[in-house]
Amino acid sequence: MNSLYSRLRGTAVWRSVFRSGTGDTNLHRSLTVQQNIFLHLASVKIRRRALEFGVTWYLGTLSMASFVILVVTGVLLMLYYHPSVPQAYADMKDLQFVVSAGVFLRNLHRWAAHAMVVLVFAHMFKVFYRGAYRPPREFNWVVGVMLLLLTLFLSYTGYLLPWDQLAFWAITVGSNIISAVPAMGAKIRFLMLGGHTVNANALLRFYVLHCVILPLIAAVFLAVHFWRIRKDGGLYTGDKPRE
Amino acid sequence: MPDQTPHVERACPGCNRRRFTTAGVGSLAIAGIGSAVFGYEFLSPNALYEPSPIVDAGKPERYPPGSVTPDAQSGLYVVHGPEGIYALSAVCTHLGCVTAWRPELDMVACPCHGSKFHIDGVKIEGPAPRPLPWLKAWLNDEGNLMIDRSEALTRKQYVRVQA
Prior knowledge:
- With 243 residues, chain A is mainly α.
- In chain A, 68% of the residues lie in helices and 0% in strands.
- Chain A has helices spanning 2-10, 12-17, 26-34, 53-56, 59-78, 87-97, 102-130, 138-160, 165-178, 185-193, 200-231.
- In chain A, α6 (87-97) crosses α7, α7 (102-130) runs antiparallel to α8 (138-160) and α8 (138-160) packs antiparallel against α11 (200-231).
- By secondary structure, chain B is α+β, with helices and mostly antiparallel strands.
- Chain B is elongated and about 100 Å long.
């Protein structure tokens, strides 16, 4: 098994994909991380202490895991959902009662959404009370605040999509709150809903925001957030760096 | 490379990286198979919102003797020939375009790749591999002409009506 794996890693195809080559020296291990677009966001080395549960409670990782679950289940739910009036409600009911594993995916999406909001808040409290937001990590805290807002916007836009009474009145109330913004509140509400009432335009706008625009922005901010952990000296452990 | 990791007290004696990896890969394999099965079930719709293959073509009196009545929406022709009424599929057997009845040429012509057929379905020319199929047709209890688009006849059958 081991020799098969090393033979595979020596093939021309493998070498064309992973240029770092075989070997278990520190240089090779560093190159493996640095030359991989996904791994290079993370640092080559990590302090053993940073992996302990008590340091982070893994809250950031768990937030990201919820995001991944939400993307996967969300894309699958999109296959049965038409963002039109009144088809959206019927599609949501079909997902619950007709589509195989539909109710599982819908509920998983819903629970993961709730979990992500809770986890992101918990992550921020943990960072705040441990003082991990302090320089040189102050910019990454700001990126984190943006990610919190994106999480809440994603939650809010997803709320309308079932197109039931709860969704309709929640968005009616929410969009009226936005119209309290001084001077341009009514204009923001008009642009957000694509009209004066919560109707077909609002459903379509919230759908596009929820499924395309906000996730794309969140993905960019997530990439910066993870990359900055490395650039700011790794996860904050609270320890003095060992010399 | 010499092992430089400091010695740590193990919370779980007997645990090692190999066993952890084996358990992890095994769990992932089980989860992967389960996801594939559930994914296949999810992707196969249990309810389809497609038009029924059975079409109610109305009273047969609507189709006078010697007439060819195209129904592009349903993809068929109702033909009243000398031996009775029959329904001919209008869907070309080449790549599925809906053909057009051309009365001035007395033939059915496909606009996509130029296949031409007689009104009994037999091909005159073009890339179509098979003649246009005859569809199962019958009169229901109300006396309406019913056509089942999902069922092709293997031999000619006519719905006979009182002239």
